[in-house]
Write the structure tokens for this entry.
Amino acid sequence: MKILTVRYKKTRGVPEGGEKASELNRTVLAQIAGEENVDTYFIHDEAHHRTLGEYLQGIVYMPLGYYFGLTPGRVREIVSRAQTYDVVFVDRSVFGIIAKRLKETGYKGRVVGFFHNVETIYFSAKYSGTMNPMRWLTVPCADRNDRWSCRYADRTIALSKRDDDELFRRYHRHADQLIPIAFVDRYKRDSYPTESIRNPPLCMFLGAYMPANVEGIEWFVRNVLPKVNIRMQIVGKGMEKVREADWMRPDIEVLSNVPDLEPLFEAADIMVLPIFKGSGMKVKTCESLMYGKNIIGTPEAWSGYELDYTKAGACCLTADEFAVNINGFCQKPRPRFNAYSREVFANQYSSDRMVDKFRTILD
């Protein structure tokens, strides 16, 4: 079986959450079909900076359903190349137009559409201002492509029941398989840290510079930080931009574009994930589980995960709830390494657990 994966971005440097999930998909596909039988077509390469002409071209094509980077010519190139492959794995539903063109041109192989989230909801949250011109370009484009992915893909994959229900509500198709966020387990150890949470604890927020993350950490700094005694660390690609924000405090450490997160995860006492908008599942939550962290997050941060929040940390919605739980960790210290979080990851969200689910899609 030969598989062509179509991915959004060839990352040069620190990958964002979605690209980590895409790389995991490719890894699992290679486990099934063999490394030599899986090829990748990247829509973007971070080493190539878009020219003004390319940017304007993207704006022109977006109302026709071509998300940034796609053009009719590139779609024809993908369709032509696909003829020598048994499976085309379209690794984002925002590229549903590729599934559409493949079926319209008589492609005989199997088209698999992977929903990282419901893109229409994701972009509605990303460009939330009603006067933002990108909203009026991007959201309709995402909606078209979500619809085309549901209509033309032979098999579809969603991350969670929440996304599956939303896809059915909008486009009248359930996903053929639910496959949650997962990671290749990079934290297998014979022994794990045994230190207790310090007082004050080091609380880490992890996330790339994007509206939902920035809004969440701003809310936390304004509303929760005055009620707790903690050391605060913000880590994420592009997050150096928040240093100049009017809500930023001088005692908050900001680390941007960190190549190796493992030492930071090990040093953190508590992961705080105040995310209020979005779709899909949060990659940062899965990564935190992998490293066995105590996690205090919103219902959005926990969405799609099946576990006991009280054992992994806490699920909070209000500033008072965050403060009470953080202060509780200080008053009754527990280990910095949360064995339950690690166990949940190993049993439910390790890539090893996903191979059979992907195999059912390809068989």
Summary: The mean pLDDT is 92. The first strand starts at residue 3 and ends at 10. The first helix runs from residue 17 to 33.
